[in-house]
Amino acid sequence: MTGGTTAEGPDTGRIAAVSHWWRRAFSYAGDERDTLLVIGKSALAASLAWLIAFDVLDARSPAFAPFSAVLIMQVTVYRSVVQSLRYVGAVVAGVLVQAALGFLAGPDFLTFVLVALIALAIGRWHVLGVQGPQVATAAFFAFSTYTSSSGDFQRFFRLGEIVVLVLIGCAIGIAVNVLVAPPLRYRSAEYGIRSLAHTLHDLLADMYPVLAEGVPDQDTTGGWRARAARTGQMIGQARSGLEASKESLQLNPRRLSRRYRGHPGFQGYESVLGALERTLYQVAALTRGLDRSREEDEARRPFLRRYAAFLESAGAVAEVLTTLDETTLLPQAKRLERLTGEAAARRDEVVEETRRLSLSLADPSAPYGILVTEATRLLEEFQYTSQVLLDVAQDADAERASGGRRR
Fold this sequence. Notes:
Layout: H1 2-27, H2 31-56, H3 64-71, H4 77-105, H5 109-122, H6 134-147, H7 152-179, H8 186-213, H9 218-229, H10 232-249, H11 258-261, H12 267-292, H13 301-321, H14 329-356, H15 368-406
Helix pairs in contact: 1-2, 2-3, 2-7, 3-7, 4-5, 4-6, 4-7, 5-6, 6-7, 8-10, 8-12, 8-13, 9-12, 10-12, 12-15, 13-14, 13-15, 14-15
């Protein structure tokens, strides 16, 4: 029985994972639901394109239409339009290369070699982007169509048919993407900010209890420095999420709906992301300053306890950003403003402690000047973030209110 249970364990785990995936897909908006939506929309676009190409137009190569419809079904409407234009350009270029050489040189092997060379060279053109290889693909299909047709008129007609089918497929793909739940990626910007804020909060939450107990050892401060330095990739991912969010608005009809008319927009999120990026760099500098505090005597412990209290208040500010949500932005911004004020009071206590202990802030061999400077910079970034979110939230509320009055 034990062996049977062990053998069934991996399958049970996979079944549970699949079940959990489907629950997430139907429970809330996220990657799982986006995946199902793209699959469903792609199937719909392909089916409509095939129906028109095969049943209505009786095309000789109807697969071009559904293939094109699926190929340009991108995550955002804007990207669908851009990629469809590049794809149509690539197909037209490939067909024109084949048409020119085919009618000039005839459908022999040497002509195919020239078509391949020229099409592949055109496909390297940077304007076509990822659709560059489609130049050669279209040229090869066009060559096949050309050689299997008889008479110049039929050849012209079949080559033109390829272009028409591609245009139909692209048009249907774009129409489905626009009309059937066009993707809006507001939350991608929030997710990136939340992720960075979690990193900042977790680091500060680990630092302040240690500082409250006394001088940290070299391994501890080295670990803090390493964690702060590993945020570069996360910052890049957050910026990519923000760009995807902004792109999802372009050419998207849902941005005009009542739900999204009062959205706070991305300018505030971009400012917050920049502030978090600078804050993480400052925390890295702060950890380097703490490395130097190990050389000081035990009389410096009261300073570190005050500094720990400041970092604890800074962590509370970061914790608010870990739950950033455009639907509750105004109360979050007000809470952030209050917590930032508390952090300012803790920073002032740090400065007062340096005066009470007669610690030199100008001595480059002591860490106190660096630590106080970084605390001030952290506070300034939090104050800036608080004000940005407060302004954005108030503007969004005012816009929603004015929209309601107009209705």
